[in-house]
Design brief:
The chain is of the alpha+beta class. The chain has a single domain, classed as Peptide Deformylase (Alpha-Beta Complex), CATH 3.90.45. Helices cover about 30% and strands about 30% of the residues. The strands form two sheets. Strands 1-2-3-6-7 form a five-stranded antiparallel β-sheet. Strands 4-5 form a two-stranded antiparallel sheet. It is globular. The protein starts with about 25 loop residues before the first helix and ends with a helix. It binds nickel (II) ion. Nickel (II) ion binds next to helix 2.
Length: about 170
């Protein structure tokens, strides 16, 4: 089932999300719905706070080669165990900040720990786009957006644009 995605600015996007202590069927279903919502958008990552759910859950699939098999991942309580000194810069976007893209510099590779939907502890090192996406999504769990890496002026301009976009969308629905 597709779920509505919150658009910045929204106080629910600024909250620190709570750890998962009991991996229920409800949370597994939420992960499935988040993947469906992400693919439909389309996007390569989504965090539970973007749906107004203050839970440490992210989903992603950064496979972009044409015809390659998808790799949907759902991560409960994801955390960065280690990051590379080497950095890379990607033009990032966010489903909660539509049509806005900006360069963000982050560690090029990260080793991440998480709990998978079966309750198993997992650990893997990701690089390139995967590393960027995972760091972006984990930031959401801390109430942090990619525009927080930009200058205050740029952030204000983007926020103003989003306020207008939300107003326009609300009007269209009337
Ligand atoms: Ni995002």
């Amino acid at each position: 089932m597709k779920l509505p995605i919150l658009i910045h600015p929204d106080p629910r996007l600024k909250k620190v999300a709570e750890p998962v202590t009991d991996l229920s069927d409800g949370l597994r279903l939420l992960a499935d719905d988040m993947l469906a919502t992400m693919y439909d958008a389309p996007g390569i990552g989504l965090a539970a706070p973007q749906l107004g759910v203050a839970t440490r859950l992210i989903v992603l699939d950064c496979v972009k080669e044409e015809g390659a098999a998808p790799r949907p991942l759902a991560m409960f309580n994801p955390y960065v165990i280690a990051s590379s000194d080497e950095v890379s810069t990607y033009e990032e976007g966010c489903l909660s900040i539509p049509e806005v893209y900006a360069d963000v510099t982050r560690p090029e590779a990260v080793t991440v720990g998480w709990v998978d939907p079966n309750g198993a502890s997992r650990e893997e090192t990701f690089d390139g786009l995967w590393a960027t996406c995972i760091q972006h999504e984990i930031d959401h769990l801390e109430g942090k957006l990619f525009i927080d890496y930009l200058s205050a002026l740029k952030r204000q301009l983007i926020t103003r644009k989003m306020v207008k976009l939300k107003r326009d969308r609300a009007r269209e629905q009337m």
